From TrEMBL, chain B:
Pfam families: DUF2970
Superkingdom of origin organism: Bacteria
Key words of the record: Membrane, Transmembrane, Transmembrane helix
The name this protein goes by in its record: DUF2970 domain-containing protein
Organism: Halomonas urumqiensis
């Protein structure tokens, strides 16, 4: 008897140690919003309830197996039912479940209440980047992964934020309620940032809502978490939370830059300027499919370098870029790139890699086509 | 009638006395159990809905 008690305590102790040891290394983050804290504490409470239930149930079971084994002369009793025991083992789980459901539902209600937001941001998933639009502020940009291909292919050592870094992060203010309106252009993606406790599917044709109020400035990283095609692993999310004044300054600066860009539509652009801009747009948007040297990856992605139809027919070329090719992976860029970017990338693809047409496509021309 | 209601409630809860079960099967027809079952199911839904609405005030 003494010995079996020692064994039992040992086993129980061990059963408690394992989750404790795991809790810190692999647990979900506490996060930086009130909601994320609530979710974390719910998770911990429910986790410990489960641990206690597990220890008690398996403890009783193993103790009984051991204590009442046949070699010690134990004899099975043979009764059919015991209503009292049955009522207890039905009522106790019922109470535990209701006890967990009440605080969980209260938190869920908070998560769904996106009303009274001070800032609205449209988040659009695209193969394979995120697009952020600050609604009513005329600020919008694409956020592309910035990890170099050489690191992915193993030619260079991996950086600190390998596959979790972008060219332009989503910038948000702390202490303000920000509402996200989330959708997708092509297939289902999912916007997930653990520290913000937001994990929301973005679905073409639907708009999902979510919200955050961040308590601490900082950089929070996440990923697309819905398998969305070839480069699913390469569309990370970076959120940069700024103090309120810093955010206002940032937004004002971005608005001004947007105005500058809009003015750029009206002026005449030099070929070199367009080429420089176009190379950058191509690298961040088109190269994932048509490849860095325009060689494509036939048959899936046609080559743009040395593409006779492209060289001969500007109208056809522009139609592909503006309207995409429905039923294929080629997206329509009329909504996601501005006239300057479209003119620049068209110019670049008409003059790079030996496509020496000499055409300088003007942003004004694109703007006119877009308004038709 | 009271016996039928008690048996249906016991079924909702998932625990029944063997003696009561034997009695239920002497009755012959299941119609009363089905009717009471449907009615009490509706009552349960309404009660849960009311509690939920009240609690979310
Ligand atoms: Cu995705």
């Amino acid at each position: 008897m003494r010995k079996s008690l020692v064994w039992m305590t040992g086993c129980l102790g061990f059963a408690l140690m394992v989750p404790l040891a795991m809790a810190n290394a692999w647990n979900m983050p506490v996060g930086v919003t009130d909601v994320s804290r609530e979710i974390h504490s719910l998770h911990m409470i429910i986790f410990w309830i489960c641990v206690v239930i597990g220890v008690v149930v398996f403890g009783v079971m193993f103790y009984s197996l051991f204590r009442f084994r046949r070699s010690q002369g134990a004899k099975a009793s043979n009764f059919h039912e015991n209503t009292t025991v049955e009522v207890i083992w039905t009522a106790v789980p019922l109470l535990i479940l209701v006890g967990m459901a009440i605080p969980a539902t209260a938190t869920l209600k908070k998560m769904y209440d996106a009303s009274d937001a001070e800032l609205d941001i449209m988040i659009t998933g695209q193969q394979w980047r995120w697009r952020y639009e600050y609604l009513g502020e005329d600020v919008a940009f694409n956020s592309n992964m910035s990890t170099p291909r050489a690191q992915i292919q193993g030619d260079e050592p991996r950086g600190e934020h390998y596959l979790l870094e972008v060219d332009e992060p989503l910038v948000l203010p702390v202490n303000r309620k920000v509402r996200f309106l989330m959708t997708a252009d092509d297939v289902i993606h999912s916007w997930w940032v653990p520290d913000l406790a937001v994990k929301q599917d973005t679905i073409p044709g639907f708009i999902n809502e979510n919200w955050v109020r961040i308590n601490e400035p900082g950089i929070y990283r996440g990923q697309c978490t819905e398998l969305c095609g070839m480069d699913h692993g390469f569309m990370p999310i970076v959120v940069e939370a700024l103090e309120e004044e810093e955010f206002d300054a940032w937004l004002a600066e971005r608005k001004e830059a947007a105005e500058q860009e809009a003015m750029g539509v009206d002026r005449e652009w030099e070929l070199e300027e367009l080429m420089e801009r176009g190379e950058a747009v191509y690298g961040s948007i088109c190269a994932s499919c048509h490849q860095a040297e325009g060689q494509g990856a036939p048959p899936a992605f046609p080559a743009l370098a040395d593409n006779q139809q492209l060289i001969d027919d500007l109208d056809w070329h522009l139609d592909k870029i503006l309207n995409g090719v429905s039923g294929s992976a080629m997206p329509a860029f009329r909504g996601t790139l501005n006239p300057v970017e479209i003119a620049a990338v068209t110019t670049w693809t008409r003059n790079a890699w030996g496509n020496d047409t000499g055409d300088a496509v003007q942003p004004a021309e694109i703007a006119e086509r877009l308004s038709d | 009638m009271w016996g039928v209601i008690k048996s249906v409630l016991a079924a909702f809860f998932g625990v029944q006395r063997e003696r009561q079960r034997q009695e239920d099967f002497e009755n012959g027809s299941p119609v009363a159990f089905i009717i009471v079952g449907v009615v009490l199911a509706v009552v349960l839904v309404v009660v849960v809905a009311l509690v939920a609405v009240q609690a979310s005030r």
